[in-house]
User: Fold these one by one.
Assistant:
Number 1:
Amino acid sequence: MIKIAQPQIGQEEIDAVSAVLKSGQLASGHNVLQFQKNFAEYLDQGFCIATSSGTTALEITLRALGIKKGEKIITTAFSFIATANAIVHAGGTPIFADVDETTMNISTDSIEQIILEQSGIKAILVVHLFGQSCDMDKISEIAIKHNLLLIEDCAQAHGASWKGRKLGTFGDAGAFSFYPTKNMTTAEGGMVVMKDEKLAKLASQLIQHGIKERNQFEYIGYNYRLSEISAAIGICQLKKLDHFNSVRRENAAYYEEKIKHSDIIKPIEVPGAKHVYNQYTLRILNDKRDAFINYMNRNGIDVSIYYPYTIPEQLCYRSTDFLEKDYENKLEVANRIKHEVVSIPVHLGLMEDEVERIVTVINQF
Ligand SMILES: *Cc1c(COP(=O)(O)O)cnc(C)c1O
């Protein structure tokens, strides 16, 4: 079976982890500091704080930005559920926007519509879905115009950019995940990127129980630290990230050129965006998705649906009072494409003949 994801762990990572294990310093130490520094240098701006996961990075970002209980944050209905959960854990209220049909990213029209209809919006939390930038010109303009905080969920977009500038550096803050299916991994882990150095300091306190100095605690914080073991993996992975992304982009370019099928819409890289293809997500038209998935699996190719449900229709959100009454009607595009999307393998572990075989199999569907 050709897998949908495959983390790339080399001898370098194994040696780095083994050095940490032998050192006796397992919890946050100099590897974490080094990883944070390297990541900030990679992005070229901002202040980085490593955390235990992408979800905790998002939550800490919102806490450090001062989101208060019940404050409304506009986010996309079509993402991994952690995006919205982080808002709720930070005390905020997610307001779900629809997506753009071509990119599947949050729709700027939908954001503007919500701002028009509702008062008390405090922030916009965008997700660069599947590795492609949202329209950061338009979204930054909306945030400035309405005096809203802007946060980027970059969990699928390490190294992706908008008009040459790395994602995670447009908003007041960004958050990354290093889960094994992402463009780089630390096993579990995350990174907060803050534009403001003082807020980065606050974030670093919050992930360590709100510590001020030894034995003195200024805030009621959390233990959301990254371990030295994970940081050591992260340092190695970050060095390879550009290579990882270029292979993903080569695989995607091959699919773009070769996949030809009247029932299939391929993803589009929009002008200005450098896509890093955390997922290569097709849309299968005419109610043929189930048949497509069965067919691919029969041919030994693992595919996966990201995402079969919108976040607000998940059981855990249906029973909350976050949802507006007519939210379903507002999510017209998301509610349509969730029946069409399917992601195919695009990762580094694919051999050349496997990429070719995936194309041949798809074109014969
Ligand atoms: C993976 C992911 C997260 C959560 O990251 P974890 O490290 O799994 O906590 C958040 N948002 C998006 C869009 C993701 O893909």
Number 2:
Amino acid sequence: MRKVYLDNNATTRMRGEVLEAMLPYCKDIYGNASSIHQFGRPARKAIDGARADVADLLGAASAEEIIFTSGGTEADNFAIKGVVHALRSKGNHIITTAIEHQAVLNTCKFLEKEGCKVTYLSVDKHGIINLDELKRAITDKTILITIMYANNEIGTIEPIEEISKIAKEKGVYFHTDAIQAVGKLAFKVKDINADLLSMSGHKIYGPKGIGAIYIKKGTKITQQTHGGHHEMNKRAGTENVPGIVGLGKAAKLAKKEIPEEYKIKDLRDYLYKGITSNIEDVRLNGHPEKRLPNTLNISFTYLEGESIILNLDMEGIAVSTGSACTSGTLEPSHVLTAMGVDAVNTQGSVRFSLGRYNTKEDMDYVIETLPPIIKRLRTMSPLYDKK
Ligand SMILES: *Cc1c(COP(=O)(O)O)cnc(C)c1O
């Protein structure tokens, strides 16, 4: 049976070049990067090289602005908690959105229990925040604005440059969870004017369990992991050398290939067209244009996303309802709910997220496989019956 992987926003397949780059650091070059002997030195050198490659991909002014973490989740936690701890004397108010990833939302919820005040900005029907609402939310106690660059469920791209401009005017730090944007959109941290930015290896064809945070020089942030003097005294712990090397390689390849990677949009639009011309009562979730080139989130009205996913899985097609972190629960997506999507559509949402290994044949297979599944499920749906 054909296998079609369309869940690239959950994780990507690691590139062969990345694995090749990592292997020597899993085998012969096993020294501790902090040791000054001949076993440690090549590991240190590899970390320095990877840091430069990540800095280059993000357009950072210097490699010292990049700190390696155990992934995107840790980068988000570090950014938010680190600023809250550093700026305690200034204030305790954070502004974020209702559609963030759990790594940001649950960090904010935790901090609320510790006495922080959090404003969750609303979004419009396409998932975009309102800049006037953001301006109004800022008080003299606001210390951080944390807003994702692009949403993992629907792919909507937020007006990041306008947001950072507002933050700068008010003297508030701006952090962005750019985990879905990195490798898909061409941008430079200095152009988007972020003080802090999170990225993750396994979303850009790199290894899992490694990520990075960009911290603009001079940004006040308190260390969250204490121990040795690693990562310029910002994040203690023996470095994950193979992971860091893999992330560096993935970043280097991504930098070169973003324009090519963007062409995935044509394949995605071909899939959308194929689905909508064969199936009725389909709704596109997310912004029609301001959207990641690989993401297609659609609702099959009156159905449950889970049953569609299970049926597609039996045909070898891997998709998801939105977020890997919320699946398993029958709760509707917090993103679609915040966008005001009605109940008959939130349940039936399916996210197709494409990647560099997908082909037109993959799309044709989905376009062919999906209509009979939807038809069958709708004949069994009491809701569709009453339509
Ligand atoms: C995947 C993802 C994360 C979490 O990153 P991990 O490296 O898996 O911890 C956070 N935010 C967004 C938007 C993501 O897509």
